Amino acid sequence: EISIVGVAARLTLAPDRDVIDTARIALNAVAPRPLRAPDAERILTGHPLTSELVDEAADLAAAVTDPISDVRASAEFRRHLTRVMVRQALAQCWQQLTETR
Prior knowledge:
The chain is 45% helix and 19% strand. It is an alpha+beta fold. A 3-stranded antiparallel beta sheet has the order 1-2-3. Helix 2 packs antiparallel against helix 3 (75-99). The longest helix is centred in the C-terminal third of the chain and has 25 residues, at 75-99.
């Protein structure tokens, strides 16, 4: 199968476990090659995860994409799906990290 959009996220917490120490967001099928979202990663670092911060990171991640339109999805839909999937990935990371407290 060929992906419409692929997203992977990784968060690590600072020693005090209240803020994000490092953030990594990788995107696939939204540009000629897989890429990272460095601006989104940067705004997450040093802050607790809030819904506003997640929305901003998702928008920044979508901004680095350069998707094509093809029979599977339009470029506009791929950008939209990138935002949705980044939000979901970050929420899942945060949930897993906070459950281990």
